[in-house]
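Page 37, continued from 36.
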């Protein structure tokens, strides 16, 4: 008799082809689970923050991956609501809960563990766990901006205490959740990983030629074009450093400003959104990667991808970034205009310093960002 594959429900409002660090991680996760003999079910929305992409309501991948995407309104609505917890909840949670409840009513016997991504999915997971008696694991990808909101903190603590395990990417995240009165026994660490074969150093001249990036000293940015990611800050720095080329990849509310700036400044190149499957080519087309986040990042996947490609990082020291990257591969500063500008200029003027950082990048990535990080998640799936 053949044992039944354990069934894992990945529950997330955001999933590919929506573009983002969480989405890339979840692509990696479901693929690795499939190869690891799990049966994987994904319940999610259509792309919410990435416009003009083709998506399928139902998709089967690999050996045992079933993805269901429910059509939902997107564009920039999420970015407008994410700072208002109650409105964010109403936007992301009730409809997905309704659809996933219907799914569990018919397919629940195939599910052994619910793995919820973020707090909105976590709340749905608590309800499903209670009704259908499933194990619940919640992954937290970000540090939350609570600002003393009593009701919000109570709800977060309740969600976390209902889960069997709460996985936080960084010490900053775990400390925040612990401070809300969540038992330390509930909290565990996990880390993203990257495909270190695809995200690996390649011939820079070939990559630049393929992507239309000249041999000028190049700073690369990849991320959502929203205020807290710091893309506008980086563009303003670029306007003062005409000797340095800045290449920006991403989409979001600040897209119009960045596109306009690229037309007015020859040293700014805006490429729009690029699929994660193509990003390794661009990491290999730059001299340094800039990570100018103005908030507490959970960990920072794009920094991991850059380092895995042998690309040193200049960036913010906020949140989990300084936990993901150390001074052997990165120059991390308080993300002010002047601090980031000075850090970029110092590396521009000191090619030997860049060589030292580059030399350390690949080994650092192999040690810290390999598929071995999957075990930090799957060990919590067992009953």
């Amino acid at each position: 008799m053949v044992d039944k594959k354990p069934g894992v429900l990945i529950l997330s409002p955001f999933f590919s082809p929506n573009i983002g660090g969480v989405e890339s991680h979840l692509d990696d996760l479901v693929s690795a689970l499939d190869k690891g003999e799990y049966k994987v079910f994904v319940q999610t929305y259509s792309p919410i923050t990435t416009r003009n992409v083709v998506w399928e309501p139902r998709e089967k991948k690999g050996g045992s991956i079933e993805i269901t995407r429910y059509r939902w309104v997107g564009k920039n609505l999420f970015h407008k609501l994410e700072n208002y917890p109650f409105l964010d909840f109403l936007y992301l949670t009730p409809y997905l809960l309704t659809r996933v409840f219907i799914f569990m009513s018919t397919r629940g016997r195939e599910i052994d563990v619910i793995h919820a991504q973020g707090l909105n999915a976590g709340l749905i997971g608590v309800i499903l766990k209670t009704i259908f008696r499933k194990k619940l694991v919640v992954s937290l990808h970000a540090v939350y901006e609570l600002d003393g909101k009593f009701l919000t903190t109570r709800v977060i603590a309740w969600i976390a205490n209902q889960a069997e395990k709460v996985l936080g990417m960084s010490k900053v995240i775990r400390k925040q959740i612990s401070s809300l009165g969540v038992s330390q026994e509930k909290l565990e660490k996990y880390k993203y990983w990257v495909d270190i074969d695809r995200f690996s150093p390649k011939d820079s001249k070939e990559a630049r030629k393929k992507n239309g990036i000249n041999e000028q000293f190049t700073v690369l940015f990849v991320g959502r074009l929203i205020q807290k990611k710091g893309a506008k800050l980086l563009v303003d720095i670029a306007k003062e450093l005409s000797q340095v080329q800045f290449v920006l990849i991403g989409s979001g509310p600040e897209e119009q400003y960045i596109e306009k700036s690229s037309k007015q400044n020859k040293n700014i190149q805006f490429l729009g959104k690029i699929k994660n499957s193509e990003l390794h080519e661009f990491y290999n087309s730059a001299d340094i990667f800039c990570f100018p986040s103005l908030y507490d990042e959970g960990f920072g996947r794009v920094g991991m991808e850059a380092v895995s490609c042998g690309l040193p990082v200049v960036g913010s020291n906020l949140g989990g970034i300084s936990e993901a990257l150390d001074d052997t591969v990165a120059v991390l500063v308080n993300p002010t205009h002047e601090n980031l500008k000075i850090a970029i200029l110092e590396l521009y003027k000191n090619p030997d310093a860049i060589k030292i950082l580059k030399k350390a990048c690949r080994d650092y990535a192999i040690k810290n960002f390999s598929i071995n990080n999957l075990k930090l998640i799957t060990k919590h799936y067992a009953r």
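The chain has two domains: 7-190, 204-368. Flag for discussion at group meeting. Residues 43 and 103 are 9 Å apart (CA to CA).
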